[in-house]
Structure formats: structure tokens, C-alpha cells
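Reviewers of the previous submission asked for a worked example of the structure-prediction workflow described in the proposal, so we include one complete record here. The input consisted solely of the amino acid sequence. No template or homolog information was supplied to the procedure at any stage.
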Amino acid sequence: MLKLAVFDFDSTLMDGETIDFFADELGIGEEVSLITEEAMSGRLDFFESLVRRVGLLKGLDISVVEKISHNLPYMNGAVELIAELKKRGMTVVCFSGGFRTATSYAKDILGYDADFSNVLHHKDGKLTGLVGGDMMFNFSKGDMLVRLQDILGVKTEETLVCGDGANDLSMFAHAGTRVSFCGREILEKEANIIIKEKDLTKILEKLTDRNI
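From that input alone, the workflow returned the following C-alpha cells.
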């Protein structure tokens, strides 16, 4: 029986990459998007990619960051999936290599119980190009998942994780149900549920098929 579900945010619970939306405001969307893709495909260290991308955002108004963060397009089926999982008694959490301006705002809209992500440093109303937080490294999601499992008394086989990129691999190592949602090849290889369609309710169908 599943007791804990952990979801990535960008391109999983939300349809797109938050940092790419920020970059578009500065006219550097393509440059940042290319770095994002390299990291999500496992060809670039996540920490290095995060630092590089956030550095390129230096000078962006924090008011613009917040406005974008509060108007993101959530993934089809996100609200319905989370509501159903919670109805089944599961704790639902978001782990994101993205930013708290987006994940904390989305928490009550999408219905998950807690979020762990990163914080964009700002001063005098503008981004400084610096970042810190809970999900800075390739290993961060797996590390945090193990801590959460210990706190909640949840076993590996009682855990579902879902993501799309290479930085989700570390949490796949600690979950019995591993969902690749429109994911990169590197993640699909480690998944036991693969969803190719942008509809999170498809996960419920797969759980039913597997009698989970």
C-alpha cells in the first residue's frame, strides 16, 4: 500500500520550466532552455547548470519573478491526481530543483502537503544571480526522500515518485513505484511506470493496472 508520493514540479506538476519563463523576460529564453535541457538529459551536472542559469537572471525584478511564478500553467490532471492520492491516505510532497516562489504558491492550488525547492536571492528589488536551498544538487531529491521516509516511517515499497529529468534519478533509487512522466530516456530506463501523455491522471490508470 502506498503511503507517500513525491512529485517533481517543473514539467511534471507544471507544464514547462519556471526558469525558462523568467529567462524569456530577459530575452535569453533560448540560451537558458538549452542549459536546462542538457541538465535534464543528464549531460550536465545539475548544480553547475542551476548556478549558470540563475546567474543569467541577474537584474530581473523580483516583482516580475513573483508575477510569473503565480501565473504558471499547471499540468493537466494535477489537481485531480493529488486529490485522489490524498483520498487514499497518502502524503503528497513536491521536490523541485526550481524555486519556492512557484512551488509554495502552487501548494494550496494543487493540494500537496509540502514543498522543498530553492530560493532566488534578491536585493533592492532585483535578482542578484545567486541561489540557495533544498534541491541544489543531483543527489538532493534522493537525500531528502530518505529523510522524509525516516520521519514518516514509510518504506521504499510504500513510496511513489514521479519526475521527468535526470535530477529525479536520485529519488528513484528509494521508491518502489517510479513514474517517468513525459521523461528523458535516462529516467525511463529506471522507471516501472512510463507515461508519454501530458495527463497526470494516467498515473491512476497505471496504478489500477498494477493493482497498487
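The chain has a mean pLDDT of 96. We consider this example representative of the routine output the project will generate in years two and three.
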